[in-house]
Design a protein that fits this description.
The protein has about 725 residues and is an alpha/beta fold. It contains 24 helices and 20 strands. About 50% of the residues lie in helices and about 15% in strands.
């Protein structure tokens, strides 16, 4: 059913600013993920440095010199620690687990050390950096993310070093003149690659630090081996620069080795001190400017916020995954119970003493493409009681009412009225209907012969106020049609089985539903307050104390949108109308009946909150693919698709449908799913901004015109034979007036 387009001057306001807000949110999220990915690309010292080749006079001076090198001048200059001075250096920190324990150990031995820190760790743990400086230790720059400076372009070298200086400025108020190239070791291994990086660092005023002894503690050698290697240069009283690590893995052996080494050095009369003090230079620390402190504070806040954001997303993904699996498991179990109950209906189930007369109301606006097939299918019913068909032509401009009237079918009446919308058309039809059992059907839908009989049967129970039928997609040939077919069977009809048992039916669809006139009247009639009048009416009936049930055998074949644009407009209206209905009936949450808590709680969680956050799943999946290990991402995705496929197979089996259509399910995750959650995002943004949404039209293709199809056969075997021949909805026999 479609509304007439209103004059341009009177059209309700369209939402305009919501996509801007969505774009801002997406930009912030992307920035947070990129910053977190960059800051945590910290692998530490996990492998020996690659061989660096080259020969020149400059390289020979560096290789034969001391571990502290200045390349800012015409010739490289180097320095060595003084006799009986040991400079313990620790790379890759600070680490919240190992650095505090190391500092406690150094304090016990009254020793000082030099920490070559990573800027990302400094920004993440500012309190540890402040403690390092407060306890008299020295700080060196080890880049921001442990980038291999010999393998990155010059701009990246400058960025890495500059960001670390800003982090130090914000946390400790200092800059440092010491630098160590990641993956470097002793000066004897320097080649052209590291020499290029050293020149860049020299131009920035850094003293580049190597080592006399590389313990390679990252490879977890025996403690005694590390201690003996560290003491090798102390036999003749020489000084030494020794590399350890206080981050990047289990450092228990490092702590044990440092403890034993300091004990041995104390016995030999050595002092463990900072690097600059060991070589006889002034401290490497200089005061940072106020501007650098401000910039560093912003950087640190942004990084910590991005880390917290990504961590929160991880927890959300875990919670969403668990909720989704629990929902699927619960609904499959409830659907199984519903199917068993349907098969085992006892003789105690209320039955009509005589088939009650039924009024079928067909609101129609510009439904010329399908109104004939709809009306003929209603007249061709095998219902044994009286049936009248009331077609309400809501100001159609394409001859819809004329076509329906020209059929000359018995029991069919056509009412014409100026365009006023679907709720008004339904209200007109209800007022004119002669009977108290009302069946409502859209003008693009066809019934099978037993549909009315099956639909009316549950109303024999006086507690039942409305019955939802089983809506099937007729035009399911293309990919979009197949996707909607799966959604209708799994997402709609399977859910309705569960809602029936839980007593919280959210919607009797406009395509097929039966109502007791008394129940409709108690709900205040068909309201025009929302764009989802079917959901609104169903909720009102449930709140009035009536039962709303699902009848799977009452099948109706509807024409689904055939393009993504049409699908978007339809679902946008559905979603926005559902939001309106939820808000309108929010008071049901505090009512005694369980409908409000179950229905509104479910809709809010699974049809609003989780879809709103669904983009996070895709973004985090891409994040994991490109930043982390892609195997877990692929494995989780495959598991979810497998679970959905099993659920879909069971739902299709319950509905007597072929499971072969499930081959499109994996593809549904890459287009259809995104379309559905973007619809929710736009609908919520529209509602939050207070914009009014106009009724979007859906262009009909005439799937059920007599030239293409006829009334569907009720038998499963007949439907399967037609499906094999490649039809959309099963064919029907031509009925005679």
């Amino acid at each position: 059913m479609r509304r007439r387009r209103r004059p341009a001057g009177r059209r309700p306001a369209e939402p305009r600013g919501h996509w801007f807000l969505v774009a801002i949110a997406a930009l912030l999220m992307t920035g947070a993920l990129l910053l977190n990915a960059y800051a945590h690309n910290v692998v530490g010292e996990t492998q020996p440095p690659l061989a660096d080749y080259g020969d020149s006079a400059e390289l020979e001076r560096i290789r034969s010199g001391g571990p502290l090198v200045n390349v800012s001048g015409a010739r490289p200059l180097s320095a060595r620690p003084k006799t009986r001075r040991v400079a313990l250096t620790f790379d890759d920190g600070p680490d919240p687990r190992w650095t505090p324990r190391l500092l406690d150990l150094l304090r016990q031995h009254h020793a000082k050390a030099t920490f070559f820190v990573l800027g990302a760790h400094v920004a993440e743990h500012p309190e540890l950096t402040r403690r390092l400086v407060a306890e008299g230790h020295e700080i060196g720059n080890h880049t921001y993310t442990h980038a291999d400076l010999a393998a990155v372009p010059a701009w990246r070298v400058r960025v890495e070093m500059s960001l670390t200086q800003k982090a130090l400025a914000a946390t400790a108020g200092i800059h440092t003149r010491l630098a160590r190239i990641p993956y470097s070791s002793g000066p004897g291994a320097v080649g052209y690659g590291q020499l290029t990086a050293m020149r860049l660092l020299g131009d920035e005023g850094y003293l580049v630090t190597f080592a006399d002894v590389d313990t390679q503690d990252w490879s977890r050698p025996p403690v005694d081996e590390m201690v003996l290697a560290s003491l090798a240069r102390t036999a003749e009283g020489e000084g030494a620069v020794i590399i350890f690590h206080d981050s990047g893995g289990d450092r228990a052996r490092t702590l044990a080795a440092v403890d034993r080494l300091l004990t041995r050095l104390e016995r030999k009369g050595y002092s463990a001190t900072t690097l600059t003090e060991a070589v006889g230079l002034p401290t490497a620390h200089t005061a940072a400017s106020p501007n650098e402190r401000v910039l560093g504070t912003v950087l640190g806040f942004a990084q910590r916020a991005s880390f917290a954001f990504v961590e929160a997303l991880g927890w959300f993904l875990a919670a969403a995954g668990v909720l989704t699996l629990l929902r699927l498991t619960l609904f499959v179990a409830l659907a199984w119970a519903h199917a068993r109950r349907t098969r085992r209906r006892s003789t105690g189930t209320p039955r009509w003493t005589a088939p009650p007369p039924v009024s079928v109301i067909v609101p129609a606006y510009n439904e010329a493409a399908g109104i004939e097939a709809t009306v003929r299918s209603l007249v061709a019913t095998d219902y044994p009681g009286p049936v009248e068909v009331v077609v309400v032509d809501d100001g159609s401009a394409d001859g819809t009412g004329r076509i329906a009237a020209s059929l000359g079918l018995p029991g069919v009446r056509v009412i014409r009225q100026p365009n006023a919308g679907k709720p008004a058309a339904l209200t007109t039809g209800i007022a004119d209907a002669a009977h108290d059992i009302l069946v409502m059907v859209d003008g693009d839908t066809v019934f099978e012969p037993p549909t009315i009989r099956n639909l009316v049967r549950p109303l024999a129970d006086p507690a039942v106020g409305a019955v939802s039928g089983n809506t099937k997609v007729g035009n399911r040939r293309g990919m979009i049609g197949r996707w909607q077919h799966i959604e209708y069977v799994v997402g709609f009809n399977l859910d309705r089985r569960a809602f029936d048992l839980l007593g919280c039916m959210a919607t009797v669809p406009g395509a097929i539903g039966a109502f007791r006139r008394e129940a409709v009247a108690s709900a205040g009639g068909v309201s025009a307050d929302t764009l989802a009048e079917d959901t609104d009416l169903t909720m009102a009936i449930s709140r009035g104390g009536w039962r709303v049930v699902y009848e799977e055998r009452a099948r109706a074949w509807t024409e689904a949108p055939a393009s993504l644009g049409q699908l978007w407009r339809q679902r946008y209206r559905w979603c926005y109308g559902t939001l309106q209905a939820i808000w309108k009936h929010r008071g049901a949450v505090v009512e005694r009946r369980p409908f409000g808590r179950r229905c509104l709680g479910y809709l809010t969680l699974f049809q609003v909150v989780l879809p709103l956050l669904a983009p996070v799943v895709d973004v985090m999946a891409l994040y994991g693919l490109f930043v982390g290990d892609p195997l877990p991402v692929v494995a989780v995705w495959a598991c979810f698709v497998a679970v959905q496929a099993l659920t879909g197979w069971y739902a299709l089996r319950l509905d007597g449908e072929r499971a072969s259509v499930l081959w499109v399910l994996p593809l549904q995750q890459f287009v259809y799913r995104q379309l559905m959650y973007l619809v929710v995002i736009q609908s919520v943004a529209t509602a939050v901004l207070g914009a009014r949404l106009r009724w979007h039209t859906v262009r009909r293709e005439g799937t059920f015109t007599l030239a293409a199809a006829s009334v569907p056969e009720p038998s499963l075997a007949g439907r399967r034979r037609r499906a094999v021949r490649g039809g959309n909805a099963p064919r029907r026999r031509r009925s005679r007036p």
